[in-house]
Design goal:
Oligomer: single chain
Strand order of the largest sheet: 2-1-3-4
Structural class: alpha+beta
Number of helices: 2
Strand content: 25-35%
Distance between the termini: 19 Å
Largest sheet: 4 strands, mixed
Order of helices and strands: EHEHEE
Length: 72
């Protein structure tokens, strides 16, 4: 199965860890972009969030979720 969710994370963000844990528990495939390892991706995060540097940011198709409020 192909990952339909891309999640932008940062290791200093507890919400990023919680979001990943919930996706794993629910067996939902995702592709992680760790911003500490891929700092150029901050440009995409800023584009998706209207200029904010915030994590996590989850992208599923045209749906962009900023922050973490639970997967389901």
């Amino acid at each position: 199965m192909q990952e339909s969710i891309v999640i932008y994370t940062h290791p200093d963000c507890g919400y990023s860890a919680t979001a990943k844990d919930e996706l794993l528990q629910l067996d939902i495939p995702f592709r992680e972009v760790d911003l500490s390892e891929t700092p150029d991706a901050w440009q995409e995060v800023e584009r998706l969030t209207g200029g904010q540097r915030i994590t996590p940011v989850m992208v599923e198709g045209d749906l962009v979720t900023v922050g973490f409020h639970g997967v389901g």
